Amino acid sequence: xxxxxxxxxxxxxxxxxxxxxxxxxxxxxxxxxxxxxxxxxxxxxxxxxxxxxxxxxxxxxxxxxxxxxxxxxxxxxxxxxxxxxxxxxxxxxxxxxxxxxxxxxxxxxxxxxxxxxxxxxxxxxxxxxxxxxxxxxxxxxxxxxxxxxxxxxxxxxxxxxxxxxxxxxxxxxxxxxxxxxxxxxxxxxxxxxxxxxxxxxxxxxxxxxxxxxxxxxxxxxxxxxxxxxxxxxxxxxxxxxxxxxxxxxxxxxxxxxxxxxxxxxxxxxxxxxxxxxxxxxxxxxxxxxxxxxxxxxxxxxxxxxxxxxxxxxxxxxxxxxxxxxxxxxxxxxxxxxxxxxxxxxxxxxxxxxxxxxxxxxxxxxxxxxxxxxxxxxxxxxxxxxxxxxxxxxxxxxxxxxxxxxxxxxxxx
Length: 412
Description:
The chain is an alpha/beta fold. It is about 30% helix and about 15% strand. The N terminus is likely disordered. It has a six-stranded mixed β-sheet with strand order 2-3-6-4-7-8. Strands 9-10-13 form a three-stranded parallel β-sheet, covered by helices on one side. The two termini are about 35 Å apart.
């Protein structure tokens, strides 16, 4: 597969591998052609189902991430690899529970878990009946057909349900939480339903203004193939995705669309759609997200989004450092749409990461998963459960980078 797809796949896996213990690998189950579920290249869609060994009534549906294809060329490239074709899916894979344990202080190790591999390039949001330039845009159909399969596996008797996903799968969690919740609630009205998007809160932010002699970060060896050289914004990329894959007619939240009739793509961006999501959610994110440093802020001194890919001899100027710090402040401001309802919670670190060590990161002397459990236990939402690292500089002034050198990218 193309190097860009390989890197996106690797990052997608690292984002969610840090969620919880991985269940035993199970075989890929391809969906029948009659479902209409397809990857970009037209190959049949499939999923991985790990049943509970104790017949638990807890369920997790976990959505893989891996960026987006933002134009015809990038979708064509993606269709040649595992992010665009089931021909390249692993024969077996596991799935990580995001249900809360019975003690409400961490993640459950036992649940029924369905893992949705990602092959549509649009966070499971698009749908076109006909092919478009020889590509199939069936993301929403892939999601719905897998939910149908989940009901056949016993989802209809669920008592606790969590929709989760990482990166582009985290955005998909914001986008589809209400849709999936409505389907589950229709057959299991007494179930406790929640969402847990992981690093899926991508800011609608202008790129850092480039000087003509600034080095370009548009390098396929360290990026995911986006035009992240300051010439276009993440928001413009999402507008392209929404238009190309017909997302405004299929997946966007109606109340968000009503509020943004001239700019439907805003409803494909987490900060704009979050206030309209009715399903209780707890988000995990960095306010200095490493992918966003490279592709959203498009910072010239951040050509790598993890410690192993960022050259150690690159430093940021005072202006660049100030812009990075301002991005963190802007992220906290954007969280107002999540904090607009007490039903939502969050764990926001200052570690510059995208595949973050959620098991070890702490705020208020409690881990991310302990705080997630406390939020879940407060089903009546009687208090706020938004926890934000107060540090105004990345990595808590450098301490987190020292503590987690393989996860937190240095802030030079």
